């Protein structure tokens, strides 16, 4: 297999495969990955368009795919005591649901499209297949998914605290 | 005689005696034709040649040829007849044995590996059949043949005749000895092979665990031990087998040596004619044939005997109960049940049930509750007589349960287990499993009507599933035809009602749009081809090929195919045979190697024109199968898309002969005439009906009902099903199609052991199956536990209202909020009844049940 095929084809017409390949190459989840692996992921991903208000991820449903966003913005929400709370807003090139690539669980948050959202969808089966075919990249990929997820947690906590601390909804432990 | 105690020869002696006699007669007659040529040999040499009589030579040679021919034909007939007799006996043996096995007590199946049962029923019985055919005929023939040839030799020369017999006593002692060793090893071989079968069987059944735990080596180790043991045994067997062969050959060669020595001496001295010597030698060779046959017979007899014994030992259990009370129909029960001091032990020591007593009037409902492991399910099994109590008595309508025949219990009691078994077949087969069985056994005369089936289906909540299965079916034109106009009306309504709801999830057939989720071929035809469409079949259609050629699409499509082949091999070449990865290419994983070879024939410039027609067609096939929305391996060039869209109207007008305007805007009013024209066209010739265009007023025979109603390609199946089932149920009712669709749904194939069904569907099916049996006693062992809350409640309501007073129900209940509906409750703990009474009494008492319901007091 040689990694120049994608480029060759570009001369004829920009194939979807090439476009998705480029998109993944610049996504935080897969940037810097070996081109062969990236190409297989691009090949196995699907396109989906969401209208404003559509749910990309619905809390309580089975988690089985991750979304790489390409244009548009979404918000991450949780429902608590019957109220919807926004945790985070993601623009353009973010990705959501990456943990679904690694394990089975039910979504504990929802993600709603705020504008028209173009997304590349990768499901767990496909991702696991890639790991199976390229075992040498397995650890690196898993680590990347976890790092990204941890970064997300940190962002969400800070953004929530930023909003809550000034209003006095919660207080720092030093005061109590 | 008890089946498993029958000796092997029982089957032979009792069956097909007339055929066996015919066989014997054929063989006896053939003996004459086998000896006669020897006499001719002698006469040819002694008379014809010696006296130089040409006419005699012709006569004897002619007779010789005739006799040899007759002997050959008779041998052929007797061989065939033998095989037929063997197979006929096998049929009886297999049927009797299978009936015996099916009736064995459950404990037998708990103890025995299924692999053992299957291999005994299949491969090992086959091996016995080859022996059975000639079991009587061969030994009789062989002895007769031996005597006849021996007699002929003694008639020629008594001294030589007797002399040639002297080696046989040696053979009689040596060969059986070797054979006995052989048998001993063979017996072991059968055991090892069987164990191997059950190891493999176990691994296959538990493959989830094996793959989940990565226990590949562990499982390999289990098999390895047997593989090497088998190797060891087979080698020993071969050594013995060839040893027997060797001694046979040796003895066979010593005979002629003696004959030449003594016979030659006598001939030289003029005591023996040359002709007689030649005939004698021939006879000596022939006398060896029956001997060889006897040895072979002995070997296969021993082998069959070993296998037969082991099979019979395996199944040597007695069915616990009589199948039917002789001469009387099964009893009919009212359904009152009384248990007195019932105990159930396994292995003599572990007490699973202890001192269970209760009385239940006919038509009353009893709930069994308790902690897990308290013996509720075991009690359920005892009550349905799947297990037999170790102590105490159990009676139905005052009849001791042990005294009832199997058919009494079958008609009297229905059982639904927590994990129900679903048989391979259709939904209908499974629903009617119990009633069909009773029908075959002549217990009931009528099967449930369609209306009865649908009532029960509704009660257990299977209607939405049945509709979905119905909609998912592709039905035959005959079955579709009377309903087509209703379907087309539904098509219109679905478009109006949910067109915009599902526009993201469906690509509707629109003659002015390229269909991204349909293959290129379908895009060109804007329709399908034949009843069962395949692109390969389309490639053989002359009209279509001419069209591709005339529009110059063929070249572009071959180029597209080439691009697909190159891209697929580049991307997936290293992952040969992985179905999952090939989902984005029209190439199948198994075809990869062929396409690699094909591409090797193309030069670096990519000139495919040097390829032969067959190879070009293979590239064309890829191009035609390419579906842009699904196959990500490459993109469809815009120019080609435009060319296809340009060719489409031409195809519709010139080849399919369709008026595009009325095709896309046609109202269903015009439909009847359309069908008439299609039928007329069918009579006129096949050309038109082969292509079915996607016209709004055409029913598509090659698509399932759902596709026909939606009239487009479903992209997101889950979303569509969710939205469609709501609209469908309502509209189907309006057009009186509900029963029709559900009837089609009944023919849905559930897959191997119900693989195509969800756990809940299986459970509902099992419940419906039991309810259709309408037996006076119904035993439910957590039968609704795997269902969602709504379904559980609905089924419970049916039981408490419709079955009250009619059917005695004993239910092991998992959800305690349901037990207030029962007349009586038994609370069990560690195999004993700790509380017994009505719901209100037990709650008022604030005992164990109260504790169970309200949680444990800390």
What are the defining features of this structure?
heterodimer, A: about 180 residues, alpha+beta, Jelly Rolls, 4-stranded antiparallel sheet, 5 helices, disordered N terminus, B: about 850 residues, alpha/beta, ABC transporter transmembrane region fold, Rossmann fold, 6-stranded mixed sheet, 36 helices, 14 strands
Topology at a glance:
The complex is a heterodimer of chains A (176) and B (858).
Chain A lengths: L4 H8 L3 H10 L9 H10 L1 E5 L4 E3 L4 E2 L1 E5 L3 E8 L2 E9 L3 E2 L8 E2 L3 E4 L3 E7 H10 L4 H27 L12
Antiparallel strand pairs in A: 1-10, 2-9, 3-8, 4-7, 4-10, 5-6, 5-9
Chain B lengths: L7 H7 L2 H33 L4 H49 L3 H6 L2 H20 L3 H20 L1 H6 L4 H38 L1 H7 L2 H53 L5 H41 L22 E10 L3 E11 L4 E6 L5 H8 L7 E6 L2 E2 L5 H7 E4 L10 H5 L1 H8 L9 H11 L2 H9 L5 H4 L3 H15 L7 E3 L11 H6 L1 E3 L5 H5 L2 H9 L2 H20 L19 H9 L12 H13 L12 H18 L4 H6 L5 H14 L1 H4 L1 E3 L11 H6 L1 E3 L2 H18 L3 H9 L12 H15 L3 E5 L7 H14 L5 E5 L11 E6 L2 E6 L1 H7 L2 H7 L4
Parallel strand pairs in B: 3-12, 3-13, 6-11, 11-12
Antiparallel strand pairs in B: 1-2, 1-4, 4-5, 7-10, 8-9, 13-14
Helix pairs in contact in B: 2-3, 2-6, 2-11, 3-5, 5-8, 5-11, 6-11, 8-10, 8-11, 10-11, 16-33, 17-32, 19-31, 23-24, 23-25
């Amino acid at each position: 297999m040689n990694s120049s095929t994608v480029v060759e084809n570009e001369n004829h017409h920009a194939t979807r495969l090439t476009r998705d390949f480029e998109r993944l190459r610049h996504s935080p989840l897969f940037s810097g990955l070996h081109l062969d692996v990236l190409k297989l992921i691009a090949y196995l991903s699907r396109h989906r368009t969401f209208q404003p208000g559509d749910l990309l991820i619905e809390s309580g449903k089975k988690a089985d795919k991750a979304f790489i966003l390409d244009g548009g913005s979404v918000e991450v929400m949780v429902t608590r005591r019957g109220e919807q709370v926004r945790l985070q807003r993601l623009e353009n090139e973010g990705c959501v649901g990456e943990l679904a690539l690694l394990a089975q669980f039910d979504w504990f948050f929802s993600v709603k499209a705020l504008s028209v959202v173009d997304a590349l969808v990768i499901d767990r089966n496909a991702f696991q297949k890639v790991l199976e075919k390229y075992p040498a990249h397995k650890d690196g990929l898993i680590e990347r998914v976890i790092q990204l997820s941890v970064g997300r947690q940190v962002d969400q906590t800070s953004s929530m605290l930023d909003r809550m601390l000034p209003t006095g909804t919660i207080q720092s432990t030093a005061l109590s | 005689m008890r089946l498993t105690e029958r000796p092997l020869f029982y089957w032979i002696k009792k069956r097909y005696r007339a055929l066996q006699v015919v066989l014997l007669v054929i063989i006896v007659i053939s003996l004459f034709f086998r000896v006669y040529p020897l006499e001719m040999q002698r006469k040819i040499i002694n008379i014809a040649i010696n006296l130089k009589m040409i006419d005699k030579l012709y006569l004897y040679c002619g007779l010789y040829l005739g006799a040899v021919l007759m002997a050959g034909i008779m041998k052929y007939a007797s061989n065939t007849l033998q095989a037929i007799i063997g197979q006929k006996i096998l049929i009886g043996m297999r049927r009797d044995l299978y009936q015996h096995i099916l009736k064995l007590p459950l404990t037998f199946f708990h103890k025995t590996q299924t692999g053992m049962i299957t291999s005994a029923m299949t491969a090992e019985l086959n091996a016995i059949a080859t022996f059975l055919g000639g079991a009587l005929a061969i030994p009789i023939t062989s002895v007769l043949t031996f005597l006849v040839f021996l007699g002929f030799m003694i008639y020629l020369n008594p001294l030589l005749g007797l002399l040639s017999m002297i080696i046989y006593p040696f053979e009689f002692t040596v060969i059986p000895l070797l054979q006995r060793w052989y048998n001993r090893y063979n017996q072991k071989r059968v055991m090892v092979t069987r164990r191997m079968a059950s190891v493999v069987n176990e691994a296959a059944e538990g493959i989830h665990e094996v793959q989940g735990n990565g226990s590949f080596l562990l499982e390999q180790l289990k098999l390895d031990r047997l593989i090497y043991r088998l190797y060891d045994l087979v080698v020993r067997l071969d050594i013995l087998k060839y040893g027997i062969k060797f001694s046979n050959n040796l003895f066979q060669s010593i005979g002629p040596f003696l004959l030449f020595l003594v016979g030659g001496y006598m001939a030289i001295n003029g005591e023996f004619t040359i002709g007689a010597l030649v005939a004698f030698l021939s006879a000596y060779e022939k006398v060896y044939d029956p001997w060889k046959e006897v040895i072979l017979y002995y070997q296969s007899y021993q082998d069959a005997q070993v296998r037969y014994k082991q099979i019979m030992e395996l199944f040597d259990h007695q069915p616990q109960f009589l199948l039917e009370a002789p001469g009387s129909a099964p009893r009919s029960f009212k359904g009152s049940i009384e248990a007195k001091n019932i105990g159930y032990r396994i292995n003599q020591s572990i007490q699973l049930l202890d001192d269970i007593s209760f009385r239940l009037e006919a038509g009353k409902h009893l709930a069994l509750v308790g902690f897990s492991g308290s013996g509720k399910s075991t009690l359920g099994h005892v009550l349905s007589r799947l297990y037999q109590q170790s102590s105490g008595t159990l009676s139905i309508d005052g009849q001791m349960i042990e005294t009832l025949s199997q058919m009494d219990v079958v008609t009297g009691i229905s059982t639904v287990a927590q994990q129900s078994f679903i048989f391979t077949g259709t939904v209908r087969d499974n629903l009617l499993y119990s009633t069909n069985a009773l029908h075959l056994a002549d217990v009931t005369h009528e099967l449930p009507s369609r209306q009865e089936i649908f009532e029960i289906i509704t009660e257990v909540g299977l209607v939405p599933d049945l509709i979905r299965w119905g909609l998912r079916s592709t039905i035959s034109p005959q079955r579709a035809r009377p309903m087509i106009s209703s379907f087309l009306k539904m098509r219109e309504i679905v478009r109006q009602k949910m067109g915009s709801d599902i526009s993201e999830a469906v690509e509707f057939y629109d003659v002015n749009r390229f269909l991204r989720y349909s293959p290129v071929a379908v895009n060109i035809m804007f329709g399908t081809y034949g009843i069962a469409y395949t692109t390969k079949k389309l490639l053989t259609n002359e009209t279509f090929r001419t069209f591709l050629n005339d529009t110059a699409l063929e070249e572009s499509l071959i180029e597209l195919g080439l691009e697909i082949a190159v891209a697929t091999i580049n991307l997936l070449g290293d992952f040969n045979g992985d179905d999952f990865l090939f989902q984005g290419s029209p190439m199948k994983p198994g075809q990869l190697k062929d396409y690699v070879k094909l591409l090797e024939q193309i030069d670096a410039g990519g000139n495919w024109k040097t390829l032969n027609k067959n190879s070009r067609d293979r590239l064309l096939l890829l191009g035609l199968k390419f579906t842009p929305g699904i196959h990500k391996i490459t993109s469809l060039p815009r120019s080609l898309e435009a060319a296809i869209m340009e060719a489409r109207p031409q195809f519709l007008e010139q080849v399919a002969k369709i008026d595009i305007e009325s095709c896309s805007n046609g109202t269903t009013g015009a439909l009847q005439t359309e069908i008439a024209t299609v039928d007329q066209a069918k009579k006129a010739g096949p050309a038109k009906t082969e292509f079915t265009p996607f016209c709004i007023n055409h029913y598509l025979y090659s698509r399932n009902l759902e596709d026909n109603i939606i009239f487009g390609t479903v992209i997101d199946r889950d979303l569509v099903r969710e939205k469609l089932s709501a609209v469908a149920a309502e509209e189907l009712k309006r057009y009186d199609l509900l029963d029709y669709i559900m009837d089609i749904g009944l023919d849905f194939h559930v897959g191997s052991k119900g693989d195509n069904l969800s756990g809940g569907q299986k459970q509902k099916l099992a419940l419906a199956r039991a309810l259709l049996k309408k037996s006076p006693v119904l035993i439910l062992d957590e039968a609704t536990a795997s269902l969602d809350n709504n379904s559980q409640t609905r089924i419970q309501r049916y039981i408490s209202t419709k079955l009250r007073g009619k059917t005695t129900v004993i239910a092991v209940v998992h959800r305690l909020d349901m037990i207030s509906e029962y007349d009586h409750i038994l609370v069990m703990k560690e195999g004993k009844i700790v509380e017994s009474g009505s719901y209100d009494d037990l709650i008022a008492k604030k005992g164990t049940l109260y504790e169970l319901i309200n949680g444990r007091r800390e």
